[in-house]
Amino acid sequence: MRVPDTIRINDLTLLAKLKDGTQWSAPTLQLVKISLSIAYDVRTSGELDDLGHTLNYASIVNTLTESSNAGSFDSLEALTDSIFKRCFKTYLQIQSLSVKATKPKALLRGKSVSLHVSRTRDSPSDTQESFSLEDIQFPVLIGVNPEERMTKQMIKMNLTLFGQASSSPVDYRRLEKQIHEVSQLCYPKGS
């Protein structure tokens, strides 16, 4: 069996009304970067030298934009679910799709949070999912020798959680806060 080619759209910047990560009770427009990986056989298009036998990038970008403008979303998980539904409904030839949704500057001490989900048309409940907190920075007392443990040093950490889709979204701000609290326990002064 031939392994399909991969069509990618990387870091498309959109605005979406999201409720998670905001301090307000109403959904707020937030910057989101969307990346897609689409398993697709482009062999016919190449053999016939005809782009009519492949996927139209502009059309896919329009579909992503429509998904992000389709209302408000309780979470990144809800936004990615909307993207899957629209892509599978609009493009019958797409059988497998991966979506990465990233919220830059969503963390107090980090670069971004990302949700990466892969699904197939035939088994939408068989979902692979990972959630990442990227470039979290904390001052920590760390070192082998006692003199190294006198001054805090900045550490940068990436955390990725793997699993399957759940009914409740990941509370990334709470998770970041818990990581920060643990980092303050490392090598207390005088140890």
Task: Explain what you see.
This protein is an alpha+beta fold and 191 residues long. The protein has a seven-stranded mixed beta sheet with strand order 3-1-2-4-5-6-7. The chain has helices spanning 43-48, 57-68, 76-90, 172-183; strands at 5-18, 28-40, 72-73, 96-104, 112-120, 128-140, 153-163. Helix 2 packs across helix 3. It contains four helices and seven strands, in the order E-E-H-H-E-H-E-E-E-E-H. Strand 5 (112-120) and strand 6 form a beta hairpin. It is elongated, with a radius of gyration of 21 Å. The model has no long low-confidence stretch (mean pLDDT 82). The N and C termini lie far apart (60 Å).
Fold blueprint:
Elements: E1 5-18, E2 28-40, H1 43-48, H2 57-68, E3 72-73, H3 76-90, E4 96-104, E5 112-120, E6 128-140, E7 153-163, H4 172-183
Parallel strand pairs: 1-3
Antiparallel strand pairs: 1-2, 2-4, 4-5, 5-6, 6-7
What is this structure, in a nutshell?
The protein is 24% helix and 37% strand. The chain has 191 residues and is an alpha+beta fold. The longest helix is centred in the middle third of the chain and has 15 residues.
Look at the structure and give the mean pLDDT.
82
Provide a count of the helices. 4
Roughly what fraction of the amino acids lie in strands?
35-45%
Distance between the termini: 60 Å
H-E string: EEHHEHEEEEH
- What does the main sheet amount to? 7 strands, mixed
Radius of gyration, CA atoms, in whole angstroms: 21 Å
- Give the oligomeric state: single chain
Q: What proportion of the residues is helical, as a percent range?
A: 10-25%
- Described by the principal axes of the CA atoms, the overall outline is elongated
Low-confidence stretches are none
**What structural class do the secondary elements suggest?**
alpha+beta
- Total DSSP E strands: 7
